[in-house]
Amino acid sequence: MSHFFIIDTNVVVAGLLTAHADSPVARILDGMLGAAFPFVVSEALLAEYRAVLVRPRLCKLHGLSSAEVDAILTDLARHAIVLAPISTAATPSLRIRAISFFGICSPPGQIWCWSPATNCCCKLRPCSSG
Fold first, then answer.
1. Closest to 8 measured CA to CA, from 20, 21, 22, 24
2. What is the end-to-end Cα distance of the chain in Å, rounded?
3. Per-residue burial over 65-101, b = 16 or more CB atoms within 10 Å of its CB, e = otherwise
4. Distance CA 63, CA 56 (A)
5. Which residues sit opposite 4 in a β-bridge?
6. 3-class SS shares of the chain: helix, strand, coil, % to 5
7. 46 in Cβ contact with 10 (< 8 Å)
8. CA 68 – CA 88 distance, rounded (Å)
9. Is the pTM of this model over 0.70?
10. Measured between alpha carbons, how far is 106 from 102 in angstroms, rounded to an integer?
11. Sequence-distant (≥ 6) Cβ neighbours of residue 60 within 8 angstroms
């Protein structure tokens, strides 16, 4: 069975803010940027990453411009498995197993991610190249 990771916004933020390159959050962010492990994102999660990272108080701490934040998020998305959202009404028989703030829903032969925050399921699919 393959394992996919969903990285919380706090981990991404802390990875950018830490002064210690060997800290767990820095290693996770570096791993995401280097495609060292399989992780998933959705457009909503990327938007949340961005909304938090461009807050004026955090911009003062990390020193990145909005364009630099966007470049980092583009790199993250390039290495991620991007989730395509669907309505939970279309998938009433999904089995949901909680994993931190998210869960994996697994109809036979498919992998899905469910977010209680949006009450939405997303089917895992590799991001398209190009």
1. 24
2. 28
3. eeeebeebbeebbebbbbbeeeeeeeeeebeeeeeee
4. 10
5. none
6. 40, 25, 35
7. no
8. 35
9. no
10. 13
11. none
Show pLDDT as tens, one digit a residue, over the chain (130 residues).
567 888 999 999 999 999 999 999 999 999 999 999 999 999 889 999 999 999 999 999 999 999 999 999 999 999 999 887 765 555 444 333 333 333 334 444 444 454 444 545 555 444 333 3
Both tokens of 122, joined, read: 């997303």
Can you read off the two tokens belonging to residue 39?
């992780």
Asked if 119 contacts 88 with a C-beta cutoff of 8 angstroms, the reply is yes
Nearest residue to 85 via CA among 129, 121, 114, 39: 121
The encoded tokens of residue 97 equal: 């197993």
Cβ within 8 Å of residue 6, ≥6 positions away: 39, 40, 41, 45, 99, 100, 101, 102, 113
H or E element at residue 87: strand 81-87
